[in-house]
Amino acid sequence: MEDWLSDYLRRILTARVYDVAVETPMDLAGKLSARLGNRVWLKREDTQPVFSFKLRGAYNKMAGLSPGQRDCGVICASAGNHAQGVALSARRLGCRAVVVMPLTTPRLKSDAVRALGGEVVLHGDSYSDAYRHALELQASHGYTFVHPFDDPDVIAGQGTVGMEILRQHQHPIHAVFVAIGGGGLISGVAAYVKAVRPEIKVIGVQMADSDAMVRSVRAGGRIPLDEVGLFSDGTAVKQVGEETFRITKALVDDFVVVDTDAVCAAIKDVFEDTRSVMEPAGAMGVAGLKQYVTRHEMKDQTLVAITCGANMNFDRLRFVAERAEVGEEREALFAVTIPEERGSFRRLCEIIGDRSVTEFSYRISDERQAHVFVGLATSNRAEAAEIRRALAANRFDALDLVGDELSKEHVRYMVGGRSALARDERLYRFEFPERPGALMRFLSHMPPDWNISLFHYRNQGADYGRILVGIQVPPDEKADFRAFLDNLAYPCVDETESPAYRLFLR
User: Fold this and answer.
1) pLDDT-based confidence at 173, cuts 50/70/90?
2) Which helix (H) or strand (E) holds 461?
3) Nearest to 275 by CA among 460, 432, 47, 16
4) Which candidate, 404, 395, 392, places its Cα nearest to that of 344?
5) Do 343 and 198 contact (CB within 8 A), yes or no?
6) What would the mean pLDDT of 51-60 be, rounded to a whole number?
7) N or C: which end of the chain has fewer CB within 10 A?
8) Are residues 284 and 360 in the same domain?
9) Confidence of residue 357 (pLDDT cuts 50, 70, 90)
């Protein structure tokens, strides 16, 4: 064993973390294990007092400072989790803590720092911007700097995660999957694992839009990024540390790069097994594990993913839920072109059959063709191809939109608008029991001689589905239309005179 690795092993074994941190559990993810055909264990760092592993490194560093250094007060830069670790450690050690955080930091994290007694300074759009400002404040005020990752004492504190994994699971482990931002966690875990059980693989996981470590290792030197993505704010680092780069390059076996949809799917996976909600960085290890298993066609192996944080803003859950199904390849999205003629909707419904519809949006805009935005629940990616072939066989052109960011982010919400073709249109909101095939059954009740000019539906996971329907009803058929509504027996509201309808759709 090289001397530097022996030194890190000693540092990890003697790290002072348990004054404030807890030994977190290793939980078997039963549902995910069964689905992947491997034994998947979750190292639950999201259960720390500040819901993140960062407390370990922050306290180990600060506990080792001299009384004089602590008397000057400490300062750090952080996207949120390190900040909470520093604030809690400062409260425990009785010193002042100034925390510089990016303006993009979720309010949940900045409020948590304030609640722990930390003084929050918001500056810049990324960790790197906050870091530069923190150095300026340190120079002008004489604070003691506590780095979030590029410090041997911080790395050693994070390395106690690896120590616990090997102590808690003494049977064979094929690989440990670790999210990477600046590299502190993976450096500490890799140092301990490779010193004690070098046969275990250590796999780093990065976001596709914040992959500074992957690029740096491949280039053989630290590569700064011009921009980083903000979805996984906990790993949004433009340049990794010098020490973390050195250790990662020497010890980490492989890397996996994941995208936003894959992380959203992983958040859902962890929730289904633990009933806990990870922040994006906290689920990256699981996303990488799943991708690695698929890439290498692995079976019957023992794999560990570190769930490293759970500081999730509640208002982000809407976005995560939207993208999780796509990330897990459980939702197919299509733009389907059908003839603008009576009966086309019914034929489309017959092709879709009893599949669960997740989204259905349409607005009349052309006398010859109709373009429908359709989302369907699927069991795998191959099923989406089958659906597309079935549509094509019935002369319905279908454009696969699963990989289209514009459609997923914006177009799905913008299908609609005014139409000069929507003559004699009546607009209604309906509710119906949300069961598989319910939307198709609703559509099949529509008389084929009444033209549907607008249709909008999105499955929101509730007990009742809500749809907005525009139907062109000739003036002399209003009595028949009223009878149709009565026979349908779905709760409905006439919105034809709604101001919003008149402003944006009529």
Assistant:
1) very high
2) none
3) 47
4) 395
5) no
6) 97
7) N
8) no
9) confident
Q: Where are the alpha helices (DSSP H) in 353-506?
A: 381-393, 405-406, 412-414, 438-444, 478-488, 499-504
**Which residues face 119 on adjacent strands?**
98
Asked if residue 318 and residue 388 are part of one domain, the reply reads: no
Question: Which of these, 326, 291, 466, lies nearest to 409 by C-alpha position?
Answer: 326
Same domain, 356 and 474: yes
Question: What mean pLDDT comes out for the span 149-163?
Answer: 98
Distance of CA 505 to the CA centre of its chain: 33
Q: Is the pLDDT of residue 350 over 90?
A: no
Query: Which alpha helices (H) appear in 38-126, and where do they start and end?
Result: 54-63, 67-71, 81-93, 107-115
Domain extent, residue 355, equals: 329-504
Decide if pLDDT at 463 tops 70: no
Among 276, 308, 325, identify where a domain stops.
Answer: 325
Give the closest residue to 63 by CA, choosing from 161, 146, 183, 134.
146
Residue 70 near residue 93 (C-beta atoms within 8 A): yes
**Euclidean distance between CA atoms 185 and 11, whole angstroms:** 14
Q: What is the mean pLDDT of residues 384-413?
A: 82
Give the Cα-Cα-Cα angle 468, 470, 475 (nearest 5 degrees). Answer: 145
Q: Are residues 343 and 268 in the same domain?
A: no
pLDDT single digits (tens) 207-235: 999 999 999 999 999 999 998 887 898 89
- In total, the chain counts a number of residues equal to 506
User: How confident is the model at residue 439, as a pLDDT?
Assistant: 66
158 with 261, same domain: the answer is yes
Closest residue by Cα to residue 316 from 263, 366, 367, 369? 263
**Looking at residue 123, what DSSP letter applies?**
-
| Angle, CA of 413, 415 and 419, to the nearest 5° | 145
Q: What is the mean pLDDT of residues 128-137?
A: 92
Using DSSP's 3-state secondary structure scheme, residue 333 falls into: strand
Picking from 284, 223, 216, the residue whose alpha carbon sits closest to that of residue 250 is: 216
**CA 145 – CA 456 distance, rounded (Å):** 54
Considering 145, 165, 180, which residue would you say is the last residue of a domain? 145
Contact residues for 292 (Cβ-Cβ < 8 A; gap 6+): 175, 177, 203, 254, 256, 298
Closest CA relative to residue 442, chosen from 428, 431, 451, 454: 431
Q: Mean pLDDT throughout 381-394?
A: 86
Domain count, the chain: 3
Question: Are 73 and 133 in a shared domain?
Answer: yes
